[in-house]
Amino acid sequence: MRILTVTDEIYPDAIGGVGKSLMTLAAAWAAQGHQVTALVRRIDPELPPQAQISGVQIVRFSSIPRNHPLYRLYPLAVLWNAARWLYQHIGSYDVVFMNNGLYMIPIRLARRCNSIPVVYNYHASLMQEIEIGAHRGQYGSLSQIALMVGRAFHMVENWALRNSTHIVVDGHRLLNDMRSLHGRACFDGKSSVVDLGVDLKRYEPLDRSTAREKLGLPTDRTVIFTARRLVGRVGLENLISAMPGVRARHPATVLLIAGKGFLRPKLEAQIEGLGLTESVKLLGFVEEETLPVYMAASDLFALPTEFLEGFGLATIEALACGVPVVGTPVGTTPEILTPIEPKLITRDSSPSSLAETLIYWLNRPREIDKLRQACRQAAETRYNADHIASQLVMLFSDLIEKSKAPS
Question: Is the pTM of this model over 0.85?
């Protein structure tokens, strides 16, 4: 099968859940013998126009660099440069797998794809994410403009959903949210819930002491780890606020936070104000190769999301490393964790609730150890990227057959 994936960013060009999960999926398709091309925005002018990565042909169309004053106008490059490439090449593919609603515009402008199935992988509402960021000060004096852009993206997203052949959604909760935001009747009969997949060879259990030795972490302390963008919706302020209560019961506990984002100065001030400088560490950006080692070195992984959690890729990556995840009841997190152990879900996203659940599990180290095998087993049976790739190929095949049937 000839699969064209169209998205804004992909790993390793950029580090993010959507781009990373797509690259894992595309590599699995390529390993299964499919011809896979990824059309992406060239976010760094030093990146070559084309590359072959893990059997996937990466095609990067010209765009405005991130450090350019006019970067925010990059959608114009999407509309023009992506459309030009699609017009020339889209007819060479059997199916289009799209991860960003904006790209439906150049796909339709190409005009050659009317009979080619276009599958939209819906991850979350961009409008809602922008609204939360604006509320938390992410855009500063440009907040009102950001909100207007968010509403415009919402309209484009709605149009893209309506014009797609099929919609793939990462979880039942997200499916309900999508229907609530965009109108339920438009999507009945053309949507499927398909989980994200994880590379089980990259993310695998390691001996905890060995992992800590590699990272230079103490072996006599309890480690809680999280990997999150430092943005408003992910609840890191609440997790840090929970730590004094956790440390009151378990003084040897340390919290390690991997990630970068606009909230870092605020989090640094919060850590200092709470007197946690020796027990809460902001690691900054952690390389992809090192991330599984940090997970394996941890006693628990924390997912303190406050708002808008789609399908938490970091959650299933931690599970694949055999690490229990304590998560808030936001988004698809309960769908992932409840079948493993319902008590991994907090009552809510408040600091007191996070502290309560973390303390519950830190009081039970033997039960944590017993959970490790169940976590890995869940990753192997439910989130194996090879299985997810095969599931989507079956969907594509059905859509392709229907597109060829006489109307």
Answer: yes
